[in-house]
Write a structure and sequence with these properties.
Distance between the termini: 31 Å
Strand content: 35-45%
Number of helices: 7
Helix content: 10-25%
Shape: globular
Largest sheet: 13 strands, mixed
Radius of gyration: 23 Å
Structural class: alpha+beta
């Protein structure tokens, strides 16, 4: 089945700094998942915009909002409508005079945190307080789950990171939040104008059927990552002795970390093994575009009649919207362990 045969008829609605801009003919959106900025690229026909190429030549780092309308009777059961697919910051504008096109590209609004250095110390604040403060400073709403531990306590002698490294003045606010999210086992992302800092959810959001929902589907299984061996080695200055912990049976990865207790070494080994095992099964698929699946979404694959029929978490999505060719998306997903 070809992608062109199943692409969904769409329209694009774009605003830049709150003003509607016509002439959008194509959108490419790469949604990279947690801890990374989504990247976008919008192609405009300059002749459809008042001011033409001159309008785009004068653009600065404004805020772009892109909505997509799905409908026009192209697919049964799909009514006319739309949804906000992205809100982002302009990083680059390219004008192709020969083709009469302008390309506006950039990142989602996590860019406001990625571009901001950390110059303060936050040892007495909790991770959620820092996330809420950073969101407010960046003009973002905050969907933040409250935490209770002051971040200074994360980096005492028996822990794996140091306050000095975490609060380096060259680190960005996004880097700091990503480190705190990993410590709390949270997910970090920006959707639209909201900063999300909350536990990862394993709730299944949908069931996708092979032979019905996919244009193409490939599942790769790395045999050696089924039960990978992970060894954590450390030296604990409190007890004055070496610490080591191993889990798994195949392959071999050794992590050397300072100042761990035996329990912390065992916990780190198990956590790292789980991270490796989660990459043992990689699903790559393409399907008609929709607005429901996002990086971090969990779905159940059904209909292959194999052991691959199980739950997966989407890692990345690449969406391509063309007002002539339609709307398709490609994604990668990892098996939920």
């Amino acid at each position: 089945m070809s992608e062109s045969a199943t692409a969904r008829m769409v329209s694009l609605a774009v605003t830049i700094d709150g003003m509607t801009v016509g002439g959008a003919i194509e959108l490419e959106l790469v949604q990279c998942g947690h801890f990374s900025a989504d990247r976008f690229r919008v192609v405009f026909a300059t002749g459809a915009v008042p001011g033409g190429a001159g309008y785009f030549a004068g653009l600065g780092s404004g805020v772009v909002s892109v909505g997509v309308g799905i409908g026009g009777g192209f697919l049964a059961g799909i009514g006319a409508g739309g949804g906000a697919l992205l809100v982002g910051q302009i990083d680059n504008v390219a004008v192709d005079f020969g083709r009469g096109q302008a390309v506006v590209s950039g990142r989602d609004l996590s860019a406001r945190l990625i571009d901001a250095e950390v110059t303060e110390s936050f040892a007495n604040q909790t991770a959620s307080q820092i996330a809420s403060q950073f969101a407010a400073d960046a003009g973002l709403a905050a969907a933040v789950t409250a935490t209770s531990t002051p971040v200074g306590q994360y980096y005492e002698l028996a822990h794996t990171r140091t306050a000095l490294a975490l609060h380096s003045r060259h680190m960005t606010r996004w880097d700091l939040l990503a480190g705190l999210a990993l410590t709390e086992q949270f997910a970090l992302s920006v959707t639209g104008t909201t900063l999300n800092f909350a536990p990862v959810s394993d709730a299944v959001q949908t069931v996708l059927h092979y032979g019905q929902d996919f244009i193409s589907l490939v599942v790769d299984r790395a045999v050696g990552l089924g039960t990978p061996k992970v060894t954590v080695a450390s030296w604990n200055p409190k007890s004055k002795h070496a610490v080591s912990s191993s889990v798994g049976s195949s392959g071999g990865v050794t992590l050397v970390r300072p100042n761990l207790t035996q329990g912390e070494a065992a916990q780190l080994a198990s956590a790292h093994q789980a991270e490796l095992a989660a990459q043992a099964v990689l699903l790559r698929g393409s399907m008609p575009g929709d607005l429901s699946l996002m990086p971090g979404s969990v779905f159940v694959l059904a209909g292959t009649g194999t052991g691959f029929d199980t739950s997966y978490r989407i890692r990345t999505i690449e969406r391509h919207v063309d007002v002539i060719g339609g709307f398709v998306q490609r994604f990668e997903a990892l098996k939920v362990i």
